[in-house]
Every structure is written in structure tokens, then in C-alpha cells.
Amino acid sequence: MLVQDLVSVLCLSYLKQSGSDLWQYALPLTRRSSELKLPHMRYGIFNLPSLSAADRVNGADRLHTMVEQAAYGEELGFDSIWLAEHHFHSFGGTLSSPPVIGAAIAQRTRKIRIGTAVTLLPYHNPLRIAEDYATLDCLSHGRLEFGIGHGFIKWESLTFGTPLEELRERFRENLEIILKAWSDPVFSHEGHFYQYERVELLPRPAQQPCPSVWMGATSTLESFEFAGRSGFHLMLIPFLHEIDELGTMVQAYKKARQAGGHDPATARIIAMYHIYVGENSAEARATAEPALAAYHRAAAEARNLTQGIPEPESYRTHDEHRAKMRKLTFNDLVDQNRVLVGSAAEVRDKVEHVRERLHLTDLAGNFALGSLPDASTRATLRRFMDQVAPKI
């Protein structure tokens, strides 16, 4: 299967489903979905740095470390690097400009795919996003994987001045604009939030008609079904779910994908896990437990910035999942396979378990667990690719 074929099918499916006439521009590049075949399991590195107050002065060092770890990951054989996006707090806020960091990674690497996990579409002008990521796709010679999401942290929404109640509507309109801008040499748009007349986007993405789209779905059935109907790839956060519950959501995604006229067999499904492969089981748990505790503290700090401000109805399910997850102990998280921590053999068994139940084609790990030193992160990256991945 050619990468361009899958890209074309994804863009074509969304544009036809949205009612746009832009689907005709993608049509010459597509092939029948029955001709598309999935490759073997792919592995990636997921970056969501969680900085303590003492670490914040070292934000520049952390960015350089992420770039160098991406180059090291490419040497080890990782297929992709994924960058979170957050703003104005220690829970991933260092990654406030993924396209800039992605461009730096593109210059240090040659093959590794560069993905966003996720681009927070509602907070930004869609033309700015379309330009920035088209530029990254060009600089990386067509290696962009475009992961998208609504956002869920109230402090970010309030600071950007975007009401939480508008996030879903803004997400869909911004996505439509971005895909139009990438697919059509000149486009117009008449929507609720934006109106454009005969806009030409430059540069054009290296991948035509557009890069692959991955939708982050966490809590609501609506998100899983929308991703499926649109023909997008699916991005999961298993940390928040019991695996059987999440498996049901994945089945709903696949059914919606088929109902939308897209072959479920062409779907790619990636799960973002906290992963630590230790020298042995005891060392793995001893290292991962305090690192994950630091991750939880950073998440709590971001959450507490808006304590007392109620969630809109559409976001209460997500908040409920997070509240349930916070009651779990470290051992609960390990035993329920919400985090993949252990010896190489233990992690290998866990990967096999979740891959089968969630129909995964891809898996990415937050190997730094938010705050591990560079040497420890490189050690677990190496153990994963040397002792886990080859035996799956």
C-alpha cells in the first residue's frame, strides 16, 4: 500500500461526508479501499512532559532533550514521535508549540513520522494551523501525522477566551477549513465562526491532498462515531478507561466507519500508554511509581487552576472518567493494564493483551513518564525495542 493512497482516502471521505464539493480534487488520487493493506504493528514515542516548579527553569533543556530522544528513537527503529499540545501550566505546557518542535525534530531525523497528539483545534485560527502544519509537512518531506482533538483543560479554554461550550462546534468548523485549505488550491468558506473568500494557502502540504488525520477520542461515544464516519484514524488514551469499556467504544468506531462507507480493515488505531521497561519487575515499579506520581501532581495543578468552575454537560463524562482514574493506586493502574510497567517479558505480555482487545495497529509510549531523566528514558526506549517489540 502506498502512503499517499491512504492519505487520499481519508481526505476524500471527510470532504464528501461534510458536504463539500472539494472531494472531487482528491478523487484522482484514490484507489479502492479493498486494495489498501495494513502493515505490521508500529511503535512510537509520545511526549507529554510534566515539570515540577523546580524544573520549569530548565524548560529549554527539556525541549532539546525531546529532539535528541527523537533522533535516538529513530536509530532504535521507532516509527513515529508524537507531541502533545498544552498551554499555561506544568502538565505538558512546555509543548506549547508542536509545529516548531516538530520542525526541529525534522532537521535531526530522516525517517521517523512526526505526529501531534493532539493539536487543539478550537483554540487557534484554522488558517494559521493549516499554514504551520503544511510547513512542517514540507520541512519533514511528508512525514506529518495530524492528530486532532477538542481540548479538555478549563484553564486553557479560559485563557484563550474560548468557551468550553463552543469547543465541539469550533473543532468541527476548524477541521473543515483546514482540510479545504490543504485540498483545494483556492477555497471559500461560510461558517458560524469564520468566513473566507478565495483563499490560497501556501505552502501546500508535501502529502497530497493532505496528511493523514488521527482523531483523539477519550470519553464520549459521539467522538468515536464521528471519527469512524469521517474515515479518520483513531487515537486512544487507555489510561482513563477499563479496557472492556474502551473496547466497546472501538467497536462503535469500526461500525461507524463501515456505515460511513469506509473499509474498517484500513483503519489504524493507536493507543498512547505510559510505558516503562525495567531491568526487572521490581526496578520497573520502583522507578515508574514516583514518576507517575509526579505526572499526577502536574495534572492536578492544571485542574486546580479552575477548581469550582463547573463543567458543561458535554464534558462531564470526561471529567467523571478522570475522577475515577484518580482513585486508583499505582498497583491498580499496572494490574489493569492502564500503564504498561514491568520487566521486558511482563510488558510484552501486556502489549499483546491490549493489542488484541483494542484492535491496535500502533502503540506509542510516554517512556519518560513525564519527568524521567534522559538516561533512564533512553534505557527504557532501548529495552522496549530490543526485548519487547521484536517478540510481538
The helix fraction, in percent, is 40-55%
Query: In this structure, how is the largest beta sheet organized?
Result: 8 strands, parallel, barrel
Please give the domain count: 1
Strand content: 5-15%
The top level CATH class name: Alpha Beta
Determine the N-to-C terminus distance. Answer: 22 Å
Description:
It is a single chain. By secondary structure, the chain is an alpha/beta fold. The protein is 47% helix and 15% strand. An 8-stranded parallel barrel has the order 1-2-3-5-8-9-10-12, surrounded by 8 helices. The chain starts with a helix and ends with a helix. The relative contact order is 0.15. Residues 1-10 and 20-39 have low confidence and may be disordered.
Please outline what is shown here.
The chain is an alpha/beta fold and 392 residues long. It is built from 14 helices and 12 strands.
Based on the model shown, name its key terms.
TIM Barrel; 392 residues; 12 strands; 14 helices; alpha/beta; eight-stranded parallel β-barrel
Describe the secondary-structure layout:
Layout: H1 3-17, H2 23-26, E1 42-47, H3 59-76, E2 80-83, H4 98-108, E3 113-116, E4 119-120, H5 126-139, E5 144-149, H6 154-160, H7 167-183, E6 187-190, E7 195-199, E8 212-216, H8 221-230, E9 233-236, H9 243-259, E10 269-277, H10 281-304, H11 316-326, H12 330-335, E11 340-342, H13 344-358, E12 362-366, H14 374-388
Parallel strand pairs: 1-2, 1-12, 2-3, 3-5, 4-5, 5-8, 8-9, 9-10, 10-11, 10-12
Antiparallel strand pairs: 6-7
Helix pairs in contact: 3-4, 3-14, 4-5, 5-7, 8-9, 13-14
